[in-house]
């Protein structure tokens, strides 16, 4: 495997410039603060291979759908994360020669992402046409202490010569998306203004009227002051300054650029310009070091809550930190209108911000590290989209609610029939997150206030979507795509049928609970929802008569009808040069093969873990995992958790590394497009739920840890109902320390232990 | 049902202008001569709803594929029939007022397509702003006697006033396709020149270098000569003349415009301009009447060979004539590089020129009315594409040859995975046409010279495409789309499995024949093809162990695995306002429903008719036809043939009318896009093979005619191995007359009859 980065516990280090892989490095080196993000682009001009990317959370564009062959029900528009005003830009000229690392001679290039304190550092030396060397050091961060602020320090040190240096710091709104369907530009200029050392630009999206103001202010600090000449530049959607000065031999000249970004998502439209100017002024007055100090302190706190420490395996340590770092850069849970985009702020690919990834893969991480309110915000996000989900079901001729596959505002924006119309299992994931939340937090009020409505409407969808088969007296679900997208339009996907039935069951269970514990609210809900006895009976009938494909000879669940008619090869039979399949095989060949993209039956065993014994899990894992190519980033994590549970420690570790280092090692050969943010939460699960064996049972936490052979020790932290626990696993012991909270009972290896306030429980490690 | 046209035996008549449905009228009023075609557009400017269309056979453009989500194996380009230089244009001004029927007051408007002699006539009276009336009569044709020539007579008669009349005859290459994927213009100007009364324009396609020269020459004839002023006009890709004259009160002024169109498909590129000028000069010298006379004589001959006469049912008569007329306008079989495009020269929709429609639906019409050489040309077309078909199979990871779903040059140009990659039954249709041709003509040489290679390579594809299922000891074909495109990615489509096995069987049968009758050629072929005993044995094994889905309880073939798990409704259960389904239901709903787009099992019963007895056909028809929505234009014809065979006369007649008048009555609500050319040959089949019960058995023709209740008489003609027969069916008798050919034996109602030279056989009609 190609090694892209130096292995280091806290840093992601590129040594030497890699023009051919630059997009991969740019993706990995992305910075974000939940409000905005930028790819690891260079400040100065770069004419080489690069994907310019500046993204602002919640600002999107309804790009006209591109489709070869239109089908009824397709959305007209595809909500797209859009590339916004480039605010990092600082063009650089040394002695009149433009610095462009694709052309300029460069040595000692390093690009370092510091995860501990969330900044990007570049150091390199350029050699001009007269062989004179100049050192450059660039550091930037997007503040997580003040999320509308970014700052850059750009230092130039001519070695052994005086140099005429020209900086052009600018704001450039003349940007586009590479994935624009019809080469449309999404932004129009509204307002701009520039003077010496200062400027701003306001642009708005052509549709939907998102207004974004970006302001900059900068200073130039020299060890040895020289005469400075400053000109202003104005172009279409562009403002800049041109600063020319003499940088003295061996002295450092630094340009500090402060940026603020405000949008009419947060302020009235007519105020965003003033707000941006006010904020950039404040930032400027604070200065780079103070801003950075506030920012790094905030990171310290985040790490304190969410870090996972691994001893004895730096690759694994770097992997998990990178995953946690990117998750915290993407979503911090403080804005309930936002969600966790599959690429976060690291690329354009995939539109929308919300997939079933949120409920199925990201939810637990935020629930256990960011707390109940953040998790509740994620649930409320879907609750607020319930009406849209009902419209979506109606559009497809169905009752109840069908949540969209991909969305920004609740409306479906994906347009492949086999996904958009058929990958309906997503509906159960929305319900599952409610169950999951209540199981973890005990917050039954949520069910009465919000959850039950979602459960009823998703149940209604399922009850309308099943086909009763009188010849077999069974309910079937025809024409679906399961989690394994390497099957399309299959009948009776075991996972979908299982989760649909579970969705109905849980709705009925919640109904009983509300009837008993919240009778008044319940009666109101019955009226509001028009819930009838007949409907409830229909649901019971479906639960009782749901059909589940099953392979008798092997005693495993059958992924879908007809799976066993396939040629039952294993992944090892595939020639290496044909992997990944999705880049080498035509779609029909993938579909009719037995090869599986991601957990499907296994996903069901993971979600409904309590229903299946270890032997069942083993049999199904043994049958399906060897046929799984893991070409979805969401695949290895779930397999790793189950592998841990069934005692396949080596497999669990192998799959952990695959999920943890997916982007660092560019395993699926698509990191150039951006990072796989949502699967990063799966990496966290692989450790906490897999290696740590953490589950919620009977209103408390239960652990069954093991430690991978080559690790000396690992630890993670968990927030649970007001308790903050630190779980440390060594070669010999499991130590569970209560850092916050009162006495309570926990379970380790199925034994009860009292965990005292400020105390710990130490249990011998099960081998 | 809305009636668009007056019912008439030989004419298609629009009375009064229908701006809202103009595109439908334009489609139906299309003219073509196998070399080029034009929609029923107006000569003068029209600012209303119109699809401008001028098409030249074999001239196409590789438009960059548009696809929402790319899949490995998709073609980069989609070969598109392109809109070429508009040569009919004649702008008209009366007393300085521009004639534009979307704005000008008009009365007594008629647009008449004369099918007998292949011309379009428009007559109308315009009323100017001073309430003065002027009569207009426009007649045009594309010569089938000289296929590069078109001519228009455009007559103006002011009623009760002298009028200043301005004609602007022009050639306009500044045209585009509405369906251009990225709004690209396909043509660039190469050369043009204009003088008084004459001009030409040469354009070429941006890619592939198709050069097209169009020349015009015209004359103006007046009852009463007036002073004529002529100016020339040149614009980008445009040449014209502006002729101003006084048209005297109640006198007719006629502009005769002669056009020639030449391409570098037929002449060296540097000669096409001269050729166009030479041809237009000749046409001009002959004059309109003489040109028209030659043209109409050629039509007389075509009708003599291919007309079907129906007495007592003008609607049915008009329908079949319209179908035969359009088929003869589209393809005359004289150019082996051409094929039968699904929209002919009547619209843009659908790229490519060749679908399985040719082999499955069009072949018999051309074989029986145009003769063996034309049919052989159609086979050779595919033979010449064999290498491309092998490349196509390879691209999808398969051995042998997979013919493309849609093509222009043998390369696949369609891009929906469920069609492109999975609708593989088309491969068997290519083989079936060979079988069909040899059965009809007895030309076994074709097998030795060309056919066997195609049969072997298609067989190789099938042998690689099947999946052996060791648990059932059966061969299966997984992940296909059958002829019924309202199912996608199904397993074991009965039709596909049946035809694949048939393909292998026929190949083995031909192998035996060649071995015996053409030993020398056979040995060469074995070497060329690298044919091994092992391979042949594998084919035999597949034939023996092919799996065919079957419904035991109903004793019918099961369309595919799992069809019986669907909710088994019938078409009558669908609310009328939800039809056609493809315009009202989302795709998933269509897929999981039991509703069928077009003949699937029934198509197999039709092709392999000899293998199935009447009872089997009846049971399957009874089960499937009520579930068939016939939303493919190719559906009713095949159903009609089988309905005839099983004695469902009313059903056969109902389905006949549906296929015959599909476009005249705009039944599928898409005639505005163009006509359904290929299904028109199915209409012919519905009469000849359905009502006439014609089959080829044991090297001769066999008939089992009946007559629909409301018909008094019908007749059709058949070319068969040097015989020209006229079959007439009355209420009482079947009369088979030999118009050309020697004595031979035919079969009527399973009895043998000797049909003497110049004689006839008369048999009592079976009731």
Automatic annotation (TrEMBL), chains A, B:
Annotated Glycoside hydrolase family 65 N-terminal domain residues: 13-265
Residue span(s) of domain Glycoside hydrolase family 65 C-terminal: 694-755
Active-site residues (renumbered): 485
Binding residues for substrate: 356-357, 597-598
GO terms assigned for molecular function: carbohydrate binding; glycosyltransferase activity; hydrolase activity, hydrolyzing O-glycosyl compounds
Superkingdom of this protein's organism: Bacteria
Signal peptide: none
Alphabetical GO biological process terms: carbohydrate metabolic process
Domain (Glycoside hydrolase family 65 central catalytic): residue spans on this chain: 321-685
Cited Pfam families: Glyco_hydro_65C (PF03633), Glyco_hydro_65m (PF03632), Glyco_hydro_65N (PF03636)
Family: Belongs to the glycosyl hydrolase 65 family.
Protein name according to UniProt: Maltose phosphorylase
Organism expressing this protein natively: Thermohalobacter berrensis
């Amino acid at each position: 495997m190609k090694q892209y980065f130096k292995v280091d516990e806290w840093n992601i280090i590129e040594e030497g410039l890699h023009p051919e892989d630059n997009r991969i490095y740019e993706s990995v080196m992305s910075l974000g603060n939940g409000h905005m993000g930028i790819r690891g682009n260079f400040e100065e001009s770069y004419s080489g291979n690069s994907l310019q990317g500046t993204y602002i959370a919640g600002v999107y564009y309804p790009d006209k759908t591109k489709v070869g062959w239109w089908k009824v029900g397709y959305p007209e528009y595809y909500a797209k994360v859009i590339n916004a005003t480039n605010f990092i830009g600082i063009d650089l000229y040394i002695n009149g020669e433009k610095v462009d690392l694709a052309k300029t001679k460069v040595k000692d290039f390093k690009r370092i992402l510091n995860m501990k304190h969330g900044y990007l550092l570049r150091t390199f030396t350029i050699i001009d046409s007269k062989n004179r060397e100049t050192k450059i050091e660039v550091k930037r961060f997007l503040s997580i202490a003040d999320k509308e602020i970014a700052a850059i320090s750009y230092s130039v040190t001519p070695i052994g010569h005086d140099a005429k240096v020209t900086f052009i710091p600018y704001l450039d709104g003349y940007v586009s998306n590479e994935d624009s369907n019809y080469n449309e530009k999404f932004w129009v200029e509204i307002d701009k203004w520039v003077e010496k050392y200062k400027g701003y630009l306001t642009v708005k999206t052509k549709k939907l009227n998102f207004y974004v103001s970006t302001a900059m202010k900068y200073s130039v600090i020299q060890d040895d002051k020289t005469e400075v000449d400053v000109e202003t530049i104005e172009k279409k959607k562009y403002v800049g300054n041109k600063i020319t000065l003499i940088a003295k031999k061996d002295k450092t000249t630094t340009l500090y650029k402060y940026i603020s970004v405000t949008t009419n998502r947060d302020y009235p439209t007519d105020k965003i310009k003033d707000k941006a100017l006010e904020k950039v002024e404040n930032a400027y007055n604070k200065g780079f070091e103070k801003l950075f100090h506030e920012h790094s302190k905030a990171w310290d706190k985040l790490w304190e809550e969410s870090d996972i420490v691994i001893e004895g395996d730096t690759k694994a340590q770097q992997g998990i930190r990178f995953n946690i770092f990117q998750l915290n850069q993407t979503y911090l849970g403080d804005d309930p209108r936002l969600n966790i985009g599959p690429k976060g702020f690291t690329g354009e690919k995939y539109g929308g911000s919300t997939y079933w990834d949120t409920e199925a893969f990201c939810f637990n991480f935020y629930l256990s590290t960011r707390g109940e309110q953040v998790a509740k915000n994620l649930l409320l996000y879907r609750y607020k989209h319930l009406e849209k989900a009902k419209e979506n079901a109606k559009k497809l001729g169905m009752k109840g609610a069908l949540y969209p596959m991909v969305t920004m505002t609740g409306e479906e924006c994906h347009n492949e029939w086999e996904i958009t119309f058929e990958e309906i299992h997503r509906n159960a994931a929305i319900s599952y997150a409610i169950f999951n939340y209540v199981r973890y937090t005990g917050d039954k009020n949520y069910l009465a206030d919000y959850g039950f409505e979602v459960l009823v409407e998703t149940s209604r969808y399922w009850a309308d979507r099943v086909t009763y088969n009188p010849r077999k007296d069974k309910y079937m679900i025809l024409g679906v795509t399961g989690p394994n997208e390497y099957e399309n339009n299959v009948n009776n996907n075991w996972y979908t049928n299982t989760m649909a039935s579970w969705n109905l069951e849980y709705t009925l269970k919640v109904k009983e609970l509300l009837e008993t514990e919240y009778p008044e609210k319940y009666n109101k809900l019955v009226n509001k929802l028009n819930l009838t006895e007949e409907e409830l009976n229909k649901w019971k009938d479906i639960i009782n008569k749901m059909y589940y494909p099953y392979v008798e000879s092997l005693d495993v669940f059958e992924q879908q009808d007809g799976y066993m008619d396939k040629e039952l090869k294993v992944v090892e039979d595939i020639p290496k040069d044909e992997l990944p399949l999705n880049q080498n095989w035509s779609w029909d060949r993938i579909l009719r093969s037995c090869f599986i993209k991601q957990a499907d039956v296994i996903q069901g065993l993971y979600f409904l873990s309590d229903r299946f014994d270890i032997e069942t899990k083993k049999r199904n894992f043994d049958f399906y995992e060897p046929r799984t190519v893991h070409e979805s980033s969401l695949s290895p994590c779930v397999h790793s958790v189950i592998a841990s549970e069934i005692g396949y420690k080596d497999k669990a570790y192998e799959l952990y590394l695959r999920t943890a280092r997916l982007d660092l090692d560019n395993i699926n050969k698509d990191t150039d497009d951006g990072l796989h943010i949502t699967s990063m939460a799966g990496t966290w699960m692989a450790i906490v739920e897999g290696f740590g064996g953490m589950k919620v049972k009977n209103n408390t936490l239960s652990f069954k840890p093991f430690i991978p052979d080559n690790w000396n020790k690992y630890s993670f932290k968990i927030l649970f109902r007001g308790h903050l626990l630190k779980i440390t696993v060594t070669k010999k012991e499991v130590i569970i320390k209560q850092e916050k909270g009162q006495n309570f009972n926990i379970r380790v290896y199925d034994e009860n232990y009292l965990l005292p306030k400020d105390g710990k429980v130490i249990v011998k490690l099960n081998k």
